[in-house]
Amino acid sequence: MELKQKILQLMENDARLSPRTIAVMLDEEEAKIASIIQQMEADKVILGYNTVINWEKVDGDGAMAMIDVKVTPEREFGFSRVAERICRFPEVRCVYLMSGTYDLSVMVCGETMKDIADFISHKLSTLDNVQSTVTHFMLKRYKQDNLIFEDPQEDKRLVVSP
């Protein structure tokens, strides 16, 4: 496996790893690792560093929804221009081009379900190329980015023997 891929796999699992720690783990020079990371940031291979937060353990966990969007593609641009426009809304966390019945899948966050409903009715559905939407509110997250949010429940059933 190429050195860049090894570095990316380590960083994907823990973005807090320092170039020194990665160098030790991969038996490489720290300066070489730091230079590769810096180049991948400049090349937009590494776009940023995020923290996965379990908002259910913090007051005001808000609301999240996945919205399937049916779009009329534009000549010479396809779905790109409308997707780029949707990306600019501050409520939007992710936008994916999908295969299947709907063209785009949009993850949206708001303080309440009403905030998300207002976003859909006043901003998203009013865009010229948007034909229809289907909204799926997220009720609970169990796993995200390879992180499980809660420890498995202990089996509290009584053992029954014949």
Give an overview of the whole structure.
By secondary structure, the chain is an alpha+beta fold. The chain has 2 domains: 3-42, Arc Repressor Mutant, subunit A; 55-140, 2-Layer Sandwich (Alpha-Beta Plaits). 32% of the residues lie in helices and 21% in strands. The chain is built from 5 helices and 6 strands, in the order H-H-H-E-H-E-E-H-E-E-E. It has helices at 3-13, 19-26, 30-42, 80-87, 113-124; strands at 63-71, 92-97, 104-110, 130-137, 143-144, 147-148. A hairpin with a 6-residue loop joins strand 2 (92-97) and strand 3 (104-110). Helix 2 (19-26) crosses helix 3. The chain is flat. The chain starts with a helix and ends in a 14-residue tail after the last strand. The mean pLDDT is 91.
Question: What attributes does this structure have?
Answer:
alpha+beta, 32% helix, four-stranded antiparallel beta sheet, two-stranded antiparallel ribbon, 21% strand, Arc Repressor Mutant, subunit A, 162 residues, Alpha-Beta Plaits
